[in-house]
Amino acid sequence: MQNFPSLNTNTDTNLQSELSTLNLGPTHPATHGVFQNVLQMDGERIVSGVSTIGYIHRAFEKIAEHRPFYQITPLTDRLNYCSAPINNMGWHMTVEKLLGISTPKRVDYLRVIMMELARIADHIICNGVLGVDTGAFTGFLYMMEYREAIYEIYEEVCGSRLTTNVGRLGGFERNFNDIAFAKIRKFLADFPKVLHEFESLFNRNRIFIDRTRGVAPVTQEAALDYSWSGPILRATGVDYDVRAMNPYCSYEDFDFEVPVGTTGDVYDRFLVRNEEMKQSMRMIQQALDKIEKEDPNIFHADVPEFYLPPKEEVYNNMEALIYHFKIVMGEIPTPVGEVYHSVEGANGELGFYLVNDGGRSPYRLHFRRPSFINYSMYADMSRGMMLSDAIINMSSLNVIAGELDA
Amino acid sequence: MGALNNEILQQQVTGKFGELVTFTGEPYGLLTAETTRENIIDVLTYLKQDSSLQFIYLTDITAIHYPEQENAIGVIYHLHSLVHNVRIRVKVYLPANDVRIPTATVLWNGANWMERETYDFFGVDFEGHPNLVRILNVDDMTVFPMRKEYPLEDPNRVDKKDFYFGR
Questions:
Q1: I need a labelling partner for B1 at 20 to 30 A (CA). Which of A215, B24, B142, B157 fits?
Q2: Domain NADH:ubiquinone oxidoreductase 30kDa subunit spans what residues (chain B) (predicted)?
Q3: Angle between helix B6-17 and helix B40-49 axes, rounded to 10 deg
């Protein structure tokens, strides 16, 4: 068990010494989100801290109890808004699991493409900002251009960029068009070079290494004790990845590696995220190859009771009109039961605990939000740390305020 | 190490605790057990520390409210044995006028914020918790908003309507 240093750093007998209070946040450029830490400082060193969160709490769990299943997707967008498609897909898969819908392979592969693009976008931000916080702006600018490329792919697929609301129960609202595939291929061709450039700016950069290596190291035991998940858990050396351990969405068909670190410090987290981006690109490439062998017209499961029909059919086709009405009015019975489904979000295990009583909206829906759980260690691990180290430690945890507060 | 599955897990827990733990099925493959607040820490400790089970990972703690039931508030633990890749769900139901349960922070530090969140929304009193205060809602809130008796705000109310900006 890792022992965090105790509060008492005032060992000298100087009667004049006293601590100063520092409010880090709620809106501070270095926190990258709306949350606050009240720190007791002894000079540059943090003696103790209290994390205060909840500044953008929007009561999603309560709202979800009053919304039909398909209207909860936009709420999930706003959890981790840096990788909204993963949340959307995770929610769709949870409901599909409840309803017993199995999706065609092509849908799974298209979803994998979207989710892995989202993971890359999320890691681009996290690692880019980590560079900014250590004083290197260039890498961030190089990489940001490719987040834009990913957002253009989202736009082509679903029409929106940040809060995507992509997909429906059973599949996608429309098929991927040729432009989307062309943009994905272009991204796969261009991004590795940039990522390589980014890595060559940082990985063996003396300043960056001095700033990050050995900062905030976390042991495997402490990480598991605090229920960490995602890249920061893997940076400690625990190879827990939901995609590998409990494959969903046909991840078992893919050949990928789970990168792990050794010391769990900021540098390892950075390396793990970079490596994950490469693995994500491998998976996207494999998904594109696999899709070639599937029927190009399939983009959703054949479940008319739950999949909203296209608008032109609603106006011209009796059956579609009936289903449209029943779906919107929530008149289709759903099975009574409880489901826990988790996906590997960009920050870790994103879980949906759904209890259904057969009505049109969940009886209870709980989000297991990785940022919330990962962040709970922050005040403890900051004890005894220099303020500037605590800042880059926060960056490397990639705390997203939307996911923190729900 | 022998493979662990739901059947063996159920046998082992029943062998250890007998009638103190009841199994209510395995919805969607996730074995679900129910116990009482007197036994919950023993059950969690056994699940975590037994060398053949090793549920070392606390996935989640949350709660649910059934106002119709005698024991209205359910506290729900999700555990994961990373060694065997088996999950289990453990539930404890508590009466609404006496919502006390011992804290799981003695086993996992990660339970700290999960229990604070559960307290914040359902008013579950985790006894022995080091810092059981509200976490997402404002400190001076007096109710536990995820309980079913608190409705969502009426979307049609007009008293908050602004002349220029609407709601």
A1: B24
A2: 35-154
A3: 130
Q: Domain limits at B12?
A: 6-127
Minimum Cα–Cα distance from A374: chain B residue: B110
> Which residue type sits at B70?
E
- Chain A residue at shortest CA distance from B83: A240
Distance of alpha carbon A123 from alpha carbon A126, whole angstroms:
5
In angstroms, the CA B58 to CA A224 distance is 8
Q: Any bridge partners for residue B61, and if so which?
A: B77
Q: Considering the domain A60-405, what is its CATH architecture?
A: Orthogonal Bundle (1.10)
A226 touches chain B (CB under 8 A): yes
- Per-residue pLDDT, A6: 59
Q: Enumerate the residues of chain A whose CB falls inside 8 A of the CB of residue B149.
A: none
User: Is there a domain that residue B142 lies in?
Assistant: no
Determine how many CB atoms are found less than 10 A away from the CB of residue A83: 27
pLDDT in tens, A101-111: 999 999 999 99
How many domains is chain B built from?
1
Q: pLDDT per residue over A176-189, tens digit each?
A: 999 999 999 999 99
Greatest extent of chain B over all pairs of C-alpha atoms, in Å: 69
Nearest to A130 by CA among A216, A47, A191: A216
